[in-house]
Amino acid sequence: MSTSPLVSLLPQLASGAAHTHALGFEFDRLEGDRVRIRVPWREDLVGDPNTGVLAGGLVTALLDHVGGLAVWIALDRFEPIATLDLRVDYMRAAEPRRDLIAEARCYRLTRSIAFVRAWAFENEPDDPVAAAQATYVLSARGAREADKARAAETAR
Amino acid sequence: MSALLDRAPYARFLGLESRQDGDILTVTMPFADRLIGNPMLPALHGGATAALLELTAGAQVALTWPRLRLPRPINVTVAYLRSGRPVDVHARARISKAGRRVAHVLAEAWQEDEAQPIASLTAHFLVAEHDL
Fold first, then answer.
1. 20 to 30 A Cα–Cα from A83, which one of A77, A121, A132, A136?
2. Residue A154's pLDDT is what?
3. Contact A62/A14 with Cβ under 8 angstroms?
4. Percent of chain B scored above 90 by pLDDT?
């Protein structure tokens, strides 16, 4: 997987769109099928100015975005996908004035749908600020690619 | 205008504007290039729409429970119904259950036609001061 052209695209996919660029998202790392992005703490991304804690809505945006990266990694190619739904559980407030990291893994890919879990944290995923479960719809072309991948898997 | 949205830096970053009609808030996220997630379509980033819904739900909770310093979400679920086109988005939330400790909130976001929402949100908020 580390030789895949998709991997070299990850920094661009993490922060290349106008919105992700404005939010300051950065690609962090890929380990197996787990991908991480980071949002550096910034004053204008805070929810409550009295605490300096990053806004809940920003955490949701971060988890939505990293989940998409995990889907492209599972597909091993870039193609248009759309988030179908996203559930975020907030375990605790983020630590004030700290960067947040989000990690995601696509744990199931069907012809049309990708199933993803993701976590947001400051240090380690086992002490999460928030956890997400999301589904993404693949393009029709993506469905055909998934068929091919499955056929190749069966042939091995 | 919602006091919560007024003082939240992230709401200002998104350019949110709100108006209050009776005890219902309507929040608008005016279109801006920095909200674009997919430049090819072009389409708004789903995260921006989700943040609008989440902030709208929080602001409606704050309006309903004025003694809460900051409403704390327990969980939020967003369904993306249509792609967000590069125009303004509006959102409105309603409290579907006001419990003693937990509130259940529904919200919808739309663009030109309120009957054709682009996303919907279901959320629980903690409304007791010293929980969690």
1. A121
2. 78
3. no
4. 84
Task: Please check whether residue A49 is in contact with residue A120, taking contact to mean a CB–CB distance below 8 angstroms.
Answer: no
**CATH number for region A5-155:** 3.10.129.10
pTM (2 decimals)?
0.93
Tell me if A55 and B9 make a contact (CB, 8 A cut-off).
Answer: yes
Burial of A20 (0-12, 13-18, 19+ CB in 10 A): buried
Which is it for the CA torsion A110, B45, B28, B20, positive or negative? Answer: positive
- State how beta strands A81-90 and A130-138 pair: antiparallel
Domains and CATH numbers, chain B: 3-126 (3.10.129.10)
Angle CA(B53)–CA(A84)–CA(A73) in degrees, nearest 5?
A: 115
Q: Report pLDDT for A90.
A: 97
What average pLDDT does chain A have? Answer: 92
Cα B74 to its chain centre, rounded Å, is: 15
ipTM of the complex: 0.94
Which residue's entry shows tokens 């580390």? A2
- Neighbour count for residue A150 (Cβ, 10 Å): 13
Task: Say how far apart CA A88 and CA A85 lie, in whole Å.
Answer: 10
User: Are A60 and B48 a contacting pair at CB < 8 A?
Assistant: no
Interface of A with B (CB under 8 A): 17-23, 43-49, 54-58, 60-62, 64-65, 80, 82-90, 92-93
d(CA A81, CA A72): 9
